[in-house]
């Protein structure tokens, strides 16, 4: 149960940072705090990707990328109507629709999640968003404090994923140091359990937390930025200065840039995802802070009209040699992601098990049998 809670909280932290609800989402305002949803600020809900949820219907509660509401960003409201221009949305506690204000009708491409419903009612998880925001504030404070260390300056920009990886590595380092310093005394105390009350913490659970803190952000950093970019062009009878208006039968070139904002080298694969597209170099490698580029050529057909041209990109953390990653990507992108995660899990687990082992952590708990009132009195005495 504890491990499941850790998974949920970590997923929500990553989703909050990336602007993409993962597993759970939550609301920040009281716009949904009325029948039928009754979601108070900080309450969470199960977030289902639109591709899994299916067609959006009137009555669905959706999370979408607002363009104007409160300056833009993720908004969770209910679909109250569907028009030719898009969806009409409204918070259950709001008297007017979002489109009565400055927000234009919501398009399919803006919807990032659908709230899971059971028997027509949204499953609400009270206050879990408040826990996530508190942890996010803690990560941000830790990132600011550590940003002065050479090589960690990027943490100050609020990259929660990087902060979580750092916390996982620090927890791993702490486990190794604690084992090295206290391992002997811990083993010698096994025969003295009658003298000292000792509590135990599962070392397997600690390992699971470390792996989650490292692999979940790593996976999100590879999967979330990946996808397909669609460009609508117009095949025209005459030349134009607009880069998306191309004389029929002609072509235009543009530079496709890939920037690595992380610490570990990354590799990106850029491929044509439609006809009428050529990519000069489909494999890009960028070290920390570097930008790699390739040339994309878009061709217009002889027939005039509007056409869609698509370019796909997949990003990978380079924990494997580039040729291996590219070979796995050719099989399927998720095969490459799974292989990279397998390497991360194997390395971290090997270091942890070889140095710490899987025996439970034991520590003294002299106050285990004290009542709550006695513990409170002890704490108050310390502050006198």
From TrEMBL:
The keyword Cytoplasm does not apply. InterPro entries: Peptidase_S26. The chain crosses the membrane at residues 160-182, 203-224, 334-358. GO terms for biological process: signal peptide processing. It is an enzyme of class 3 (hydrolase). Keywords: Hydrolase, Membrane, Transmembrane, Transmembrane helix. Its EC number is 3.4.-.-. GO terms for molecular function: serine-type endopeptidase activity. This is Signal peptidase. It comes from Halorubrum trapanicum.
